[in-house]
Design goal:
By secondary structure, the protein is mostly helical. It contains 14 helices and five strands. The strands form two sheets. The protein has a three-stranded mixed beta sheet with strand order 4-3-5. It has a two-stranded parallel sheet with strand order 1-2. β3 and β4 form a beta hairpin. α2 crosses α8, α2 crosses α10 and α8 packs antiparallel against α14. The longest helix has 30 residues. The protein is globular, with a radius of gyration of 18 Å.
Amino acid sequence: MRKLILLLFGCLLMVDGFGWGATGHRATGLIAEQYLNAKAKKRIRQILGQESLAMVSTWMDEIRSDSTYNYATDWHWTTIPDGGSYEEVESNPDGKVVMMIEKFTKELKSGKISAMQQVEYLKMLVHMIGDIHQPLHVGKPGDRGGNDIKVKWAGNDSNLHRVWDSDMIDDTKLSYTEFAQSLIKPSAETIKKWQQASVREWAKESMSLRPQVYNIGKGSLGYRYSYVNLPSVHERILQAGVRIAAILNKIYG
């Protein structure tokens, strides 16, 4: 019983470090599926079987309770100071999301990995591309990506990281399919622009949102904060989905 209590407590602590919540991540996977080319769709189906990109998008969070995967703890995020660049901190021993997206893209494309690695790397890549588009997963030093900034959300205890992970999204009361379908489809020109950006540019985009992310007044957040920031959540989830598809088309198409 004591072990069970400790495990449950540990899971509660880990929730604060997740990227988008399940709804956000699954929406990125569902959006990505709409932009895959036929060859990539066929190859991904061979690798994942009956699992969709939407369903595997949360796998990297689910395995956090398995100590076998402790090595991947720091693959969800990176830390870059205001005004800095990834190149200045890429030797950082923590926060490897940029490096791992680049590494897995290269290794999946090479085809020189085992069948098990192919499955796991694909699931992780989908998740990490989602993570890097959540602004607080490209965090500034000192507050653990907003986890240490305690706020109230609609009168309930929360923290800034969780507000962006899930509070704003969950308040829409939409399923991941409804959430994805509610987003305005980008134009062909916009899609092309998004897909041409590099992984490191994705990180810069997340950093550029810091002024509005941290504009929390006295920390009592709700409708007004969501009104200002939910459009950015929509855009980042759309961008993540479109870019997941672009990367997978390059790898498998």
